[in-house]
Amino acid sequence: MTATLAMLQNIVQHCILNKSSDAQQHIATPPKGTREQALAVYQTAYRLRLTEFLANDYEKLRSYMGEVRFNEMAEAYIRENPSHASNARWFGQNLPAWLKQSGRLSQHPECTELAELELSLGTAFDAIDVPSLGIEALASIPPEQIATTAFAFHPSLQTLAQRQNTASLWSALQCGETPPRPYVQDEPQTVMIWRQGNQSRFRILGAEEHMVLAQAREGVPFGALCEMMAFSHGADDVPLRAATYLRGWLEAEIITSLLPGA
Questions:
Q1: Are 185 and 163 in contact (CB under 8 A)?
Q2: CA quadruple 227, 231, 233, 237: dihedral positive or negative?
Q3: What's the whole-model pTM score?
Q4: Of 25-34, 94-103, 223-232, which range is least confident?
Q5: Contact 186, 165 (CB under 8 A)
Q6: What is the dihedral of CA 161, 180, 109, 213, to 10 degrees?
Q7: Which residues in 79-111 are b (16+ Cβ under 10 Å) and which e?
Q8: Closest Cα to residue 172, out of 182, 162, 187?
């Protein structure tokens, strides 16, 4: 049976994705070289293009690992994670999880955490647009409703728990400086990631702010947040501490609406 165009396209695609030679018989003999070499050109171009996508999505990881090690890693990832989506934006989304389980690279957890941070920054950038509130929103809350007011947060907001000094590594790479040696911190750091305007950002949260933010994202109202702070971190200056966190969230543009209670 004569192969249709669609059949030929599927055969060639399968050969490119799986580095097989099944399509050689359907390829015209080139003026120079062999059919095998002609097919290899497309197979190589496919892998190089996917490597380029990974390098764009994980720029800091590539800088940290170096081009040779990064390309070797990308080759292994491409081999074990063939692309199944037409949008290459999602091709590298499984890279952090793959790094964590990937033999020799699993011995370098800072690489996994760098990838997790870069993936989160990219996800924050792609989040849908929702208008945020400014600091003047606080003035609109009647004093008798402050305690029962809860907050809705921007969809780009995420948090990561990281054991390595990943934030320092990322910052050094961002500045073009030699990154410090990786090490395990005494306590995990919570990193807040979000988009402010047209730029993804991150910063490290202290233990109290992390607790308060996590509860606020669950819809706990301001008064209950203050009670939690007094119970877990001491009653001194609770209103000031809570107001400082709230002001910082508004200035960071991560609060999208106020939810007054009864």
A1: yes
A2: positive
A3: 0.83
A4: 25-34
A5: no
A6: 10
A7: eebebeeeeeeebbeebbebbeebeebeebbbb
A8: 182
